[in-house]
Amino acid sequence: MKNISVVLNEPRFPENIGAAARSCRNMGISSLIVVNPELPDTEKMLKMATHEAADIIKNMKVYTSLEDALAPFNHVAGTTARTGRDRRPTHAPWDAAPELKCLAQNNRVALLFGSESKGLSNDHLKYCNSLISIPTADFASINLAQSVMIICYEIFKAHEPPGPVEPKLANIHETEAMYAHLSEMFMAIGLYNEANPDYWMNKIRRFLGRCNLKAADVRLVRGLCRHVLNTVKNLQNHNT
Length: 240
Hints:
The protein has 2 domains: about 5-155, Alpha/beta knot; about 170-240, Helicase, Ruva Protein, domain 3. Helix content is about 50%, strand content about 10%. The chain is built from 10 helices and 6 strands, in the order E-H-E-H-H-E-H-E-H-E-H-E-H-H-H-H. A 6-stranded parallel beta sheet has the order 3-2-1-5-4-6. Strand 4, helix 5 and strand 5 (about 110-115) form a beta-alpha-beta unit. Helix 5 (about 95-105) crosses helix 7 (about 145-155). The termini are far apart. The relative contact order is 0.14.
């Protein structure tokens, strides 16, 4: 559990941050990260965290950019209650937990939660390698700290699946640089839809996000991008 962090993106209420910290302590997670909290009232956080989880609040990292917050992580599991044609398949917490625990043996894993009012947008979910949805009855909205507890509990009690330990994967900083390189290549070769400029990038993110890319894989993709871009540039120079 030491390689797992809870990341709260744009939480509205400091009490929920404190209660989430307490949930982390219950399940053996010591790393809490907060991105753009609406009301960063430490006193209210500490009151809900109680004495037992006060150190998690005091040591939590606060970022203004979600990409910066996720940069060092090798796998990001996003949480969402919304599904649809444009959203990737989601997994129940108990189905996702064994794989996440296995990944965490050799990788840093982020559990990403959205704000109480808006959840995670498609722009936030683009950083995610997997998605988790908590099944409910008629009312799908679950309190933020309760969501943290449910998912952390499932990971805490999960058994790692038999087989080899997952290798060290590329982190978000490395994969985002790769996606930027791919986007540049798509533009250069004309694989670009003006009506929907993110069409191909969303497709490629979903595909590569499932592949558990290692740093060497990312370097290979970026080498391909450089080769294509240089070829396009040479052709353009030749034609002029």
